[in-house]
Design a protein that fits this description.
This protein is an alpha+beta fold. It has helices spanning 2-15, 35-48, 83-104, 139-153, 179-185, 189-200, 223-226, 282-292, 296-299, 310-340, 345-350, 352-367, 373-403, 409-439, 449-485; strands at residues 21-29, 55-63, 69-77, 112-121, 130-136, 159-164, 168-177, 203-209, 214-219, 236-238, 244-246, 251-259, 263-265, 268-277, 304-308. Strands 5, 6, 13, 14 and 15 form a five-stranded antiparallel beta sheet that branches. Helix 12 packs antiparallel against helix 15 and helix 13 packs antiparallel against helix 14. Residues 13-88 have low confidence and may be disordered.
Length: 486
């Protein structure tokens, strides 16, 4: 309708601002029927909770296959705001959102099913900070396990937005068939299912052909019988002896809640408990959660519980990056060995790489920053420059030796280091000066570039000293050993 279309147009317009970060509030409505009416009902409370200068809020609706409605409120800051102030403002809005949103649903049919506040950052999604995967066969038991884990997570300071993905659907009727009684009566489960389906859904009896279409004629119970639970008494099936057996003797109706979605992991049903963190890291949250919940798996044999989430994704990414880095170093070593026709000089060149990480570790320690996946990406980039500068120095020393065979090993490396000092220093200084503004957010803060720039810049500062000091010493040591062996 027009109101919903207007909301969607406003949503598209606001998205064009391309904010760096947003906080989303997702509120699920139970048995919602009028999307526009419900959106208008919650629009004003959301706007009232975001009256601080520089913020805006927008409302939109979306539906899944079961026509369950959710209202999505986006609260975002203007692009010119600094990230630090932005984060503080959004965290301060949490309490306002929790206070203002739920009352907006009080007069709606079904009320508020749930409210989730999530901090979203740029880049690909990484999932929740904490995710506990529970696999098994019985959803009731799995929901009980999930409740125990959520209770323990609430005891951890800094863990917020605790929830699970088990969502009950609409009320439904299930036909329970007693296979023992049906077997005694000589009736199969398939016969009973077909008979009940024919009574309530109908079966095609015939069809009438018309000039433009063919009309199907279905036979089924009248509406008053389809709405009566006692209709099972009126459904009969025949056994091999030709006897008519009432379905009500072998089956009964059971009222239950449906399930919106059934997730699986490794072929088993899955319920996931999730949470975000505020003020602590995901590693700290998972570590405390493991200690507090160590006794729970013992109470439920046959059910498997695994910790995942952002921490698991980070560990897998770091392990994958480490393997890729190792393969890269091996390939570089093979290339250097073929170029220098030596198995020792490639070690002299590559030795500066691990020592350059000292600068990275000290930098992150002094700045109080965690060594993240992005900082490791910076270390890989740093390795390229370190190796390149080492190659330049070693190759230049080899050229001097080839042109001046009478020179001593000491004089060769001293001359090479002195002649390449300016090139190495200028390369390092210009690179560091270009990276420091990005590393410290001068002129703009980017959460993706800062860890890489920080590790790159400080690692390069330390590696430059190592290249001009450690590499010549190792080169001289190797050449002196070769000379003595001759």
């Amino acid at each position: 309708n027009e109101s919903t279309d207007a909301l969607r147009d406003e949503w598209r317009r606001l998205r064009e601002l391309r904010e760096e970060e947003a906080q989303y509030s997702s509120a699920a409505l139970e048995n919602a029927s009028n999307g526009t009416r419900d959106s208008e009902a919650v629009n004003q409370p959301v706007a009232d909770s975001t009256t601080e200068d520089g913020f805006f809020a927008s409302i939109s609706n979306w539906f899944n296959g079961d026509e369950e409605e959710r209202t999505l409120a986006e609260i975002s800051a203007e692009k010119r705001r600094l990230r630090e102030q932005f984060n503080r403002d959004l965290l301060a809005l949490r309490d306002q959102i929790d206070y203002n949103i739920p009352p907006a649903f009080a007069n709606l049919e079904g009320g508020l099913e749930g409210l989730e506040i999530e901090m979203l950052e740029g880049g690909p999604p990484v999932g929740k900070a904490v995710a506990i995967e529970i696999t098994g066969d019985n959803f009731q038991v799995m929901e009980q396990i999930a409740a125990e884990y959520k209770e323990q997570l609430e005891r951890i300071a800094g863990v917020v937005d605790i929830d699970d993905d088990f969502i009950e659907g609409k009320d439904e009727l299930r036909l329970n068939i007693d296979e023992g009684l049906s077997s005694q009566a000589g009736v199969t489960v398939v016969q009973i299912a077909q008979a009940v389906n024919a009574a309530f859904e109908g079966v095609e009896a015939t069809s009438i052909r018309r000039p433009e279409e063919e009309v199907e004629i279905r036979v089924r119970f009248a509406e008053e019988f389809r709405n009566d639970l006692n209709s099972l008494n009126k459904i009969y099936v025949t056994n091999p002896l030709g006897n008519f057996i009432p379905v009500s003797r072998m089956a009964n109706w059971q009222e239950d809640k449906g399930i919106v979605a059934i997730n699986h992991l490794d072929g088993r049903r899955l319920v996931t408990v999730t949470a975000n963190v505020d003020g602590i890291t995901s590693e700290e949250a998972v570590s405390q959660a493991r200690e507090l919940t160590a006794h729970i798996p013992e109470k439920y044999p046959g059910y498997q519980i695994r910790f995942g989430g952002e921490n698991k994704d980070t560990e897998e990414s770091m392990a994958s990056l480490g393997r890729a880095f190792l393969v890269g170093v091996i390939i570089i070593f093979m290339i250097l060995a073929s170029l220098f026709r030596s198995l020792v000089q490639p070690f002299v060149i590559l030795i500066a790489v691990p020592f350059s990480m000292i600068g990275v570790l000290l930098a992150f320690l002094l700045h109080g920053e965690p060594l993240s996946f992005l900082s490791m990406m910076g270390i890989i980039g740093l390795s390229g420059i370190v190796i390149n500068d080492s190659i330049v120095l070693v190759d230049f020393a080899n050229r001097i030796r080839a042109e001046n065979p009478e020179m001593s090993n000491h004089d060769v490396i001293v001359k090479a280091a002195a002649m390449r000092l300016r090139a190495v220093m200028l390369t390092s200084i210009t690179t560091v000066l270009g990276l420091l503004p990005t590393a410290y957010g001068i002129g703009g803060y980017d959460p993706f570039l800062v860890p890489m720039a920080l590790s790159f810049a400080w690692g390069l500062i330390f590696s430059t000293v190592l290249i001009l000091g450690l590499v010549p010493i190792l080169y001289l040591t190797v050449e002196e050993i070769k000379t003595k062996r001759r």
